[in-house]
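Please, structure for the following, as tokens.
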Amino acid sequence: MWNRNLRLAIIFFCILLFIVVEYYQKAACHSVEWLQKAAEQGNSRAQWELGGIYATGHGVAKDDRMAVELWQRAAEQGFAAAQSNLGAMYEAGRGVTQDERKAVELYQKAAEQGLPVAQYNLSVMYEKGRGVAQDERKAVEWSQKAADQGYAAAQTLLGWMYAEGRGVAQDERKGMEWLQKAANQGDAKAQTLLGAIYADGRGVPQDKRKALEWFQKAADQGYQSAKNALNRLQNETAPTARNPGWDKTKWNPSL
């Protein structure tokens, strides 16, 4: 009896699952149809959303060129998120010929409207000197704007620049504060940098236990640099005649 009831329960569950899947597939189709009509009428938000659907291939065949076309139309109307997304496509060369200068131009437009992801992307371009002359002061300026809005990746970059004195007067304490904010949001790079700072004792008392904790948090997210640092520190915190302990020269936290 139990087996029969279980079998029936499984059958009914499968039927219900089929109904739910069918419902959401139809809903997705209707959503795409509605967005398509709105986009054709010049609705910039619909153009942006539909572009995202084509870029990810959710509900439609993935089509980077179509995504670029839709985001271009929305960007021309000043839609910041579309400008930022289009900039990313130009930076990566997805659906369009790679053009880092064009990417910077688009990031700039979106960043000036206050979009934190664009502000961060622009700061990285300035920090790396990609598509624009390298300018670490501007990198700090734009990462600060995004960091103030709580954007974790920007907080990480800003913290690193303060800690290293890149584009700003070196201030390890301030760098730690920004890295801590990003790390508390789960940013693996910030967690790794914090681990390195505690392992080295830079601006803080050396604390290998805290270093291990932060490396572990980042490693648990699959961040390879953290995994390497964690293995290295675990091996080196068991001193032997051949292995005196953690050698900070082997770990250089950088972006």
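The CA atoms of residues 188 and 222 lie 9 Å apart. Confidence is low (pLDDT under 50) at residues 14-29, 241-255.
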